[in-house]
Amino acid sequence: MEGEGRGYLLRVLDTVVIGGGPAGLAAAIKSCEYGLSTLLIEVNDRLGGIPLQCIHPGFGIHYFKEDLTGTEFIERLIRRFMDLGINYLLRAYVRDIVIKSHDLKVVKVISPKGTYELLTRTVIYAAGARERHIHEIGVVGDRPAGIYTAGEVQAMMDIYGLLPGREAVIIGSGDVGLIVARRLALEGVKVVAVIELMPWPGGLTRNVIQCLRDFNIPLLLSHVVTKVHGRKRVEGVTVARVGNDLRPIEGSEEFIRCDTVIIAAGLVPNTDLLERIGVLIDPRTRGPVVNELLETTIPGIFVAGNALVINDLVDNVVEQGELAALGARVFIENDGIPTTEWVRVKCGSNVRLVVPQLVSGERDVKLYLRVLKPLTNARVRIGGVGVVSYVPKAMPAEMTVINLRRGSLPKELKELVVEVVSE
User: Fold this and answer.
1) Mean per-residue pLDDT for 208-223?
2) Residue 10: its pLDDT value, please?
3) 231 and 142 in contact (C-beta within 8 Å)?
4) Which CATH superfamily is domain 133-265 in?
5) CATH 3.40.50.300 holds for 1-130+267-339
6) Are 286 and 271 in contact (CB under 8 A)?
7) Range(s) of the chain covered by CATH 3.50.50.60
8) Could you give the CA distance from residue 423 to residue 421 in angstroms, rounded to a whole number?
9) Given this model, what pLDDT does residue 340 score?
10) Beta 365-371 vs 351-355: how paired, if at all?
11) Residue 137 has what DSSP assignment?
């Protein structure tokens, strides 16, 4: 049964989880298993998040050791959540977090049942990410009907049973865009082309093969859509090749007829609330700076999932939710008093981003990183530690996960520089 918020005005919770997707559900489940009093807040009218609209497989291969659809995967998490009797609020919007002291926060919530001010020792923020839209990728021209983000099209088709159009061009080759291309093809929509700015795909290799090559959908690398045409409805787009500077090459323009334009230009962590309360944001990830327990620069505020860094596997999202719950438990056990000295993790050669940004060497840590350019037979090297992993193929679209073992950091080390280099 959905939790009643009013009762929580009278006592202090151990943790409030913001977001009811995979990361939030995993964090709430693990917090409850640790014995923490937990309340989950979800802005939508149901738990589950994005996997509710993902009827394709590829979920849970690492976490459940099974290849599940998104709906099957999230149903298992929801069932575990419900079996534990964790309290939750639906259609509830967190408008603010107020820091009362180093170990006490006030979460201000608006819902159809009223407004609440919840007292909590910790907050686990798992509010996911938003899609980049057409105004962020430099496409000019008309703004007619028929322009959607990939997530909107996925929801239209897999939840509401609606087709967005009959001839589609997809801008960007991120995973959601590739999966949408396959769904459109399966429903009889002609996917004219997938347009990618970079000279390599933006999605997982398996999705490029299963969603594009298997359905003979053209992938135009090193191309960009420069203009949308159409008054009332999309009539076509102008596409141009780009040079090494990623700028359109004059004279290479080509008109492609279509009635639908789908933006699959990537995701951005949803951090507006965190920024308002003063959490430090990493410009590389566009998510918060965190330590190895996923605690932000405000003590007691933890972040997991795509609100932290854009993940390509839901398995990583769930692991981060569980790690944030561990962080909340450690914080409460230590009464919010810091007990660790942190070593800064920095991006070196061919590393675009790395999370977490602070480590201690006191526990095993997973470093999530992305490379700038593809490499084969690569090795991950960390200054002061040496070579920690060999990677057969490092791709910008695929998260590389490195295990940093407890006790592997020299005590005098002040910072770690992570680089991915060729053999």
Assistant:
1) 96
2) 56
3) yes
4) FAD/NAD(P)-binding domain (3.50.50.60)
5) no
6) yes
7) 1-130+267-339, 133-265
8) 7
9) 84
10) antiparallel
11) T
